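Researcher: Before we compare anything, I want clean individual predictions. No alignment, no superposition, just each chain on its own. First chain goes here; please echo the sequence and then give the structure tokens.
Model: Echoing the first chain and its structure:
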Amino acid sequence: MKKVILLVVFISQFLSISAQKITCADSLKVFYTNYFTYDVKLEDENRLNSLVSLYCTKGFYDAWFEDVYDIGLYDPLTQGSGSTSEDLEFIKKSLSVKKEKDYYLVSFKFHGWQGDINMITVYVYVNADGKISHTKRPSDGYLTPGQL
């Protein structure tokens, strides 16, 4: 009987997790808060991959995975700026998500390697299914993945 109850609890949690959609700025902020948390801890790599696969389109996930793991040079969700355990709370407190015309403007602050404070801004595009489909770097218009 305990196994049946545990299975029901597990399935219900899985269904609620797998149904995650971005419907407003607050839900995207929850995604980013979790993303930064999992990004800090190396042992949370599987959680990070699962989070991105749940909240993003397959095309975006594949491009993100290639950029972050295969090439290892750029994270399109953070414009390449990673979080550290020392900086995590500062980043979370500075995290701002605003809905613009056809994208969300995500910005956050982090401490640079010389101790200076840097502001990062990313444009996040969410499709009709509530999944992240693209990100855009405001400085040069670089899109992940490719064209909109």
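Researcher: Okay. Second chain, same rules.
Model: Second chain and its structure:
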Amino acid sequence: MSRRRSLHALSAAAVAAAVLLGPAHVAAAAPPQELPSADQLKAALLTANDLGPQSGYTEVPATESPTPGETPTPVSGCDALSALLNAHAGQPGPSVPHAEVELDGQGGNPMVTESLTAEDNDRITADFAKAVDAFKTCHTLTLDAGTPDAVTFDVTPITLGDRQDAPAVRLDGTVGGVRLNAYVGIERFGTVGMAFGFFQRDDTSSQTASMQYRTAVAKVERTLGTTAGSTTPPTAAATAGMAV
């Protein structure tokens, strides 16, 4: 594997970890309360146009992404975070509304991943609390993407968006002399959980990550009729087949 593809795979592994930190990917029975559909969640995801026509981002089809597929991303160095990632690994079952997207800049740098999953209120409350706890207790994290390289990140809690209570961390590491930097943020919109990941090489500025995170939050709020941090179900869930 080339160095560039190896770095891209590690980038994808980091943002895949961000996706897995969203609500649990479980094949549960259909929840009793009405939730937004997968199509509604998809409409609320970021697109390349949302990040600006001159941004240079392109959407990566799931079949083309170098993100590890059938097996969970190996994670070590933080028991709470490792347990959370491993417990939530895999794809959600058909009864769990879910949508995700990966947007790559030129050469895969930077890379943005966003995941939206709808769950019943009790489950998402528990999942969100676990993510908050994992972010607070994790200081280092090692990712092995199945490439010749693995990378250990220093983990620092930060505020990525406008809400101080929304858990977010900054990851800093180096592989093969290349500096790697990521920002991971989790947000709740009633019965919908969002996991956002921004990964870049040879740059440590948080400005672009913060701006794009805010853009993602605003689009979810606008599209689903909800507010970040709310415990009230989105209004989109009240209308089946709602056009968004």
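Researcher: What stands out in the second chain?
Model: Residues 24-31, 65-72, 240-244 have pLDDT under 50 and may be disordered. Additionally, The chain is about 30% helix and 25% strand.
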